[in-house]
User: Fold this.
Amino acid sequence: MSQTIVVKIGTSSLTQPDTGYLALATIAQVVDSLSRLRKQGHQVILVSSGAVGVGCMRLGLTERPRTISMKQAVAAVGQGRLIRTYDDLFTALQQPIAQVLLTRSDLAQRSRYVNAYRTFRQLLKLGVIPIVNENDTLAVEELKFGDNDTLSALVASLIGADWLFLLTDVDRLYSADPRYDPNARPIALVNQIDELEALHVEVGDRGTSWGTGGMVTKISAARIATTAGVRTVITEGRSPQNIEKILQGEAIGV
Assistant:
């Protein structure tokens, strides 16, 4: 059965943590997995972070910019390079893609919301995989989503997706950050977001120095998506083949 799937991948999965360079092997696996889902008849949207991180790498910067103007300039450098990488890899598999850059006002104003919906629907009808990112080059603070976890949840809600997959640098949700807490417990299934409070889940604020998200934003995104009826999964970005396994019923991620 054909389903509509939104996949979000973060900077921590797209780049190498020590250098900030693109993790090409991971990106190639993501491209292969999403192309395979398309061939199975599913409609797929990819929400991809990474423009600022790639821009930093291209310009030789060693840390993420702090000022809005610098972030916008670096994003302008990185976005073109990022989409070119995706286009080269998807083209090798004969899968057409489209670049869609959004600001918060595109989903807040009724006329622009309807236009965004129609554009996504037409792209999906054409068999295209839209690659979505925040328009970091132009968005000012009050027009920003804040992170692409939130953006992906809003896009999933907009198009009435069946699934939202949040690909991250851990394999599932834990009671604490497993990279720093050896007693962190894996959480296999959450039926209601409010259950996390009862489980005393501690969530970190950020993923890596190159990204803006973290488990807090993923849980917030899950709240947005599940409220709209979108089933949400957090799973490991370096194993995108898990998406297909989860769709087939395997219990991977949360």
